[in-house]
Structures are given as C-alpha cells and as structure tokens.
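S1.2 Input.
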Amino acid sequence: MGGCWSQTKDQFDNLEKHTQWGIDFVEKYTKFVKERSEIELNYARQIRNLSKKYQPKKKEEDDNKYTWCRAFHSTLNELNDYAGQHELIAENMTSQIIAELMRYAQEIKTERKAHFHDGRKAQQQVEASWKQLESCKRKFERDCKEADRAQQYFEKLDADINVTKADVEKARQQAQMRHQMASDSKNEYSSCLQKFNQEQNEHYYTIIPNIFQKIQAMEEKRIERMGESLKTFAEVDRQILPIIGKCLDGITQVAESIEPKNDSSQVIESYKSGFEPPGDVEFEDYGQAMKRTVSETSLTNSRSDNKADRSSKGKSKTLWPFIKKNKPKMHCLRSLRRGSLYYNKEIMKRTLGRPTYAFEARQYVVSGSNPEDFSHLPPEQRRKKLQAKIDDINKDIQKEMDQRDALTKMKEVYVKNPQMGDPNSVDPRLAEIAHNIEKLQAEAQKFEGWLAEVEGRMPVKSDPLKRTSVLYETQNSTPPTNNNCAQDRESSPDGSYTEEPSSEVQSKVQPETAESGDEFDDADEEMLPTIGTCKALYPFEGANEGTISVVEGELLYVIEEDKGDGWTRIRRNEEEEGYVPTSYVEVFLDSNAKGAITYI
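S1.3 Output.
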C-alpha cells in the first residue's frame, strides 16, 4: 500500500515539474515576442529619423524641379510609410500576442495551483484514513491479547482450590470486560476498514483520475494557445506585406519617372551665361617696332587701350592680371588650371572685352558681398535674379496696397461710426504705408532699369535712376575718356558706374541698397518663429494676395502680431501662412516671445 502512495506522489511531482516547465516556456515565448516588437519599433524609429534627416530643407526646395530630386524625396516619403508598417507590426504584436499571453500565463498559473492543491488534499485525506485504520487495527489487536490474558488468569484461579470465591468472581468479571472491549475494537476496526476501502477506491478511481484529466486538459489548452500565438505571429507580418509591396512599387515608379534629358535641359537653362564666345587671339609680331595691329576683338587691344587711358590720368601703378612688368606675355587658357583665380580673370577679360582689376576679378571668383544689381553674374543669370527681385518687390507693394485698402475701409467705418474709433488715428499708418509704397516703387523702377539694360532695352534718358554698366559693353566699343566716369569705375568694386544726376535721389535710394542687396539670399532662410497661438472668432475668406482664409473656431499659430494696421500674420502649417484681420481672431501670445519681425 505504501508503494502505491509513493508512486502516486512521484506522479504528482513529475506532473508539477512538467506543467511548471510549460508555463515557463509560455513566459519565455512572451519575452521573445516582446523583444521582436521592440526591434520593429526601433527599426521603424530609425527609418523615420533617416527619412526626416534627408528631407529637403526650405532653402533646398528649388531642387524639386529635377525629376531625380523629386524621385528621391518620394522615396523618403515611401520609406516613412514603410516605417509606419513596422510600427503597426509592433503594435499588433503587443495587443494580439503579448497582452494575451501575459493574461493567459496568469490564468494557467492559477489553474495549475488549484489542480495540484486538490491532488495533495486527496492524497492527505487517504493517508489520514489509512492511519486511522492502522490505529483501529492495533487497538483491536491489543484488546484481543488483553482478553486472552484475562481469560487465562480467570481459568487459573478457578482451578486453584486455595483461591477464594471472591477472587475467582473478580477474575471472571475482568475476563468478561476484556472480551467486551475486544469485541468493540473489532467492530471499530471493521468499520474503519470498510471506510478506508471505500475512500481508497474513490481516490484511485475517481478523484485522482479527474485531477489528472484536468491537468491534461490544461496542458492541451496551453499547447493549443502556443500554436495560435505562432500563427498570429506569422499573420501580423503577412498583413503588412501588401502595403510594403505598394511602398516598394511606388519607389520603383518614381525611379522609372526620372528623365535625364529633361533634368539636363533645366540645368542648362538655369546656368547658361549668355556670353558670346571670344574671338581668335591674333599673332603678335615682336620683330617689328612694337606697333601691333590686332583685331578689335583681341585681348591685347582692350589691354593697350585701357593702359593708355589709365597712364594719361597718372594712375598707372595698377598691374593687370597676366601681365608682368616690362615683359608682356599671353597665357593660353588651356594651360591654366580651371577654377583658379587667373583662369577666371582671363575668362572675364576674353568675354567682357576689357581688362579687369585684380580686386574685381577676386570679387568675381570669391564674392563675399555681391553687388546690388547682380553685375557679378553672367547675363542670363543676372536677368533671372533681377526678375525674381522685381517679383518680390511687386509682392511687397501689393501687400502694402492691401493694408492701405484695409485701413481706408477702417477709416470709412470710423467716420460713419465715431464711437468705434477715431478716424485720425489711422492717418499716421496710412502715411507710413504710402511712404513704403513710394520707396518700393522707386526700388522696383531701379531694378527694372537694370533688367532693361540686360535685355538690351536701354532705359529712358530722363530716368533719374539710369544706370549704364560697362561690365557687359561690346568688345568694339571705345573706352570712355571722361575722367569722372573712369574714377567712378576704378572706385566701384563691381566694375560698373552709375550716372547720378540728382544727389537727392541717390540719398533716397541709398538706405535701401544694403538691405535689398541680400534680400534674395535671405529668401531661403528659415521660416519665422511662432510667438503664440490664436483662435478664429469669425470665418474669413482670404481673397487678396498675402491673406489666408480661416474658418470659425480654427486654431492657428501667430508669427507676427498686429503693428497697428489691423492685420495679424498667422500660419496654418509649413506651407500656408498669411494675414487676417486682427478683429477676426483671439490672440494668445507666449510669455517668453520677444516679438515678431515685421517686413515692410
């Protein structure tokens, strides 16, 4: 009997170890899926950071005109979507596998504990019944032995003639009492034996099999859940494959949309200079009396003419590039290293038809501060820069006019309804806007004159801002002999001079020169910082240029507060910004904002 109990106990111990190993495996698999989810999340984060790192900056937006640049930017966007799919893998693994397995692990631990608790309880109960049976058996054995000794003692006294009758009677009663006790112990032992046999049968044929069946069902369910988790693990990856395939197909399509010929044509259009090819270099015959007869288009003609002109004014100390003192020498362009200072000087001399100063050539090659009229650029590039500058000035003029119209309407409202405001309070701002418009129109007229010069349309002589540039004069032109013009040309770092009939006009335009000279370069700077937020109180349709439409209740960013003109500059996103009436929005400025920058 003890062997059966020991065998049953060993079975429980083995099952307990096996089920614990199964639970540990579930937790191990859960940890594996969790680490896989973290890998997917980190991979997606790295892909997003990579895509964001190589996204075009605002100052690089001009690159989108090339098909290969647009293809690369589209590839970055597709990679962003690709990263989103890997984030979806991590999210689905967390919600569909990790969370479910963690919950199931807790459930199976509780169920396992209950099953083995019932098994131990049944084992303890049958062992207790066996101990009780053993106790009853020993008592019955002891009582039987006592009854036999009492019977033998009674028979011995009854046979002895010397013993009194009272002693015999006492021994007889003692023997009867022992027999009765033995009979009671027998009945108790029989009852315990019957009870134990019943409990033992129930233990080995009912309780223990049921517990084993429950443990078996628990293990089968655990194995089934593991299979379902592995299937879900594969399905999570399979679900995103079509979308990833679309992302890769998108990259393939944009790669196939690249047009090399179109891109090269745009490069040629962007960087063509408009220069005419230089004429042939004439042969210099040193055998004759230093009297050279060369063509009007040769390099030496321009050099000798300018040298004679400069020596007549007593300023012949400046040495021209490529000319050694008392030893004239021509340099072949092929022998010069492309990109060097001397190469660029020679190109300027050959193409512009006149020698240049070393300072001018250096500015042409390494221009720290470019001239306002972009005279350092080739004709075609100069024309594009001037046209872009004129367009920017016209936009500013239109914005000022819109502000003027808005203030005029506001003044009319104040005139009709004095309780809303003083009409005279608008006059200073109107005068300021009128002055700004006048300055912008003068600046636009100045740049239009330079543009007309580049395009071959000479400006009207009565134009107070007439500018005649000698940087692009024809090679057969006669060098000017006017001393004032020569002095202006020598003192001008960009190799050009300006006729200034009126000092008043010069003083009026001069303050704008330093600011407008870098305006084109600043167009690619970063966007204005936000100084607060605002909420639209009423809908507004921005029909005019420079304004932006808003809907009631919309939240936007403030980048420039009202400067007294009744307009506030706001931004919706990186591409949409403009002005709205201040009365149409409720502004919330940041406490640490230093103020917005106003461009007038």
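S1.4 Remarks. DSSP finds twelve helices and five strands in the chain.
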